[in-house]
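User: What would this chain look like folded?
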Amino acid sequence: MQVSVTGFFATLAAPLAATDAALALNPAAQAELLARLAASDANEAPYAYLYAWDGSGSEVLQVSGYGSTLVLERDQDAAPAAPNPRSFPKGACVDGRVTYAGVKDLICHYDCCAGACPCEAVAAAGMMLPPASVGVAWQGMVVFSGALPMALVVEGLPAWMSVTAGANFVTLAGTPAVAASYLLSVAATNCNGALASQAVTLEVGG
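Assistant: Here's the prediction, encoded as structure tokens.
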């Protein structure tokens, strides 16, 4: 369910690369947005639309909360030819203005219109895979876009790694014991019936 964040304003606490699947805001804003999402009494996973912008361009982001992390679905703009996802520097602005994507979402998914819109197929929406080292706790994330709910499956999981599934993402975590190269596959599907998968290559250093 979409959560309204009209009037929300923040700045990026860290650069946002075009491939990033998580958002870091200034601490007070991060806490406020996570609280707004957590306060929703929705039966489905709550999310909100944010508008990110700087002097060189903008992008509409769909954001949901997972613990203390703001998870993103990128490239939510209306124009297919827009150069998104894009990168933003630390300090770029993020706000909760009304967006085309948000209005379209409300129209298509409001209760009185249930079933009127097609089920949006799942698609790869990026991943966050920091470097991994032997004996050091590691955590990564793989994200998908598309209509909820989704079924998420991970294959090729090493013995040291665990999986936690969110509404549209999986968190991979654990502490590797040996240096090695791992190849995993994360797949998602939903009411559309189409399948999307992302290959995860993880190099564990000694």
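The chain has two domains: 8-109, 123-204. If you want, I can go into more detail on any region.
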